[in-house]
Amino acid sequence: MSDVFGARRQFGDGPLSRAAALVYTVLVVELLLLVTTAPGLVALMLLERDVSNLPLAAACALPLGPAVSAALYALHHQRPDPTDLHPARVFWRGYRANLADVLRIWVPLLLWLTVIAMNLAHLPAASVPRWWAAPLVLVGAGVTLVGVNALVIASLFSFRFRDILRLARYFLVRAPSVTLGNAGLLVAVAALTVLASEAVVVALGAVLALALLVGSRPMITAIRKEFIG
């Protein structure tokens, strides 16, 4: 009996087994991402790429925030042992637990970005100098990076909402590697959206969430060491 248990443990501890567990988890998380974002994604694909549809596009993106949060939660809590994998169960647990906090972050973020995008699109019509585009883009980038940090923190930790925002702003400067990594990831997502489509981004959603999680490790580790007693 002990030999069987030892063999099972050895199987679960090997690098190939851990890799297989990660691949399986990513695939399951991707499937659940598609399921939870499908209504908004279908509606978004039907919209024409026109400035007037920006508010509708933001509404279609509402399911994306909770889905990404649940994906981060599931990937963070994944077990390396292939004999004890339940990514779907962990995904839904994270989805339910983080839904309220994530929506408090995600909805204002979408509103801010929609307002900024609308202003950028209508600068010529408003007779506003073109150089106004630069500060608007900087504000949009800053708001987005703080929002991404807040999304990661809300997905993995239980803090008060105002503390989540404070930590998100704090680590924007405290962890420059995380900020630069998130900025690069956002640029890649924007490029994929423009050059391909939103469907391609969602199809790679679990991989992108894993990249976000890995890139945010310094912030996650610092929060665990410094802010969790």
Give a description of the structure.
The protein is mainly alpha-helical. It has one domain. The chain is 80% helix and 0% strand. α2 packs across α10 and α6 crosses α7. The radius of gyration is 20 Å and the shape is globular. The N terminus is likely disordered.
The end-to-end distance, rounded to whole angstroms, is 41 Å
**What percent strand?**
under 5%
| Structural class computed from helices and strand pairing | mainly alpha
Largest sheet: none
Shape: globular
Task: List the helices and strands in order.
Answer: HHHHHHHHHHH
Number of helices: 11
> How many whole angstroms does the radius of gyration measure?
20 Å
- The number of distinct β-strands equals 0
Counting structural domains, the number is 1
Question: Which ranges are low-confidence, i.e. pLDDT below 50, for 5 or more consecutive residues?
Answer: 1-11
Averaged pLDDT, please?
Answer: 89
Tell me the quaternary state. Answer: single chain
Q: Residue share in helices?
A: over 70%
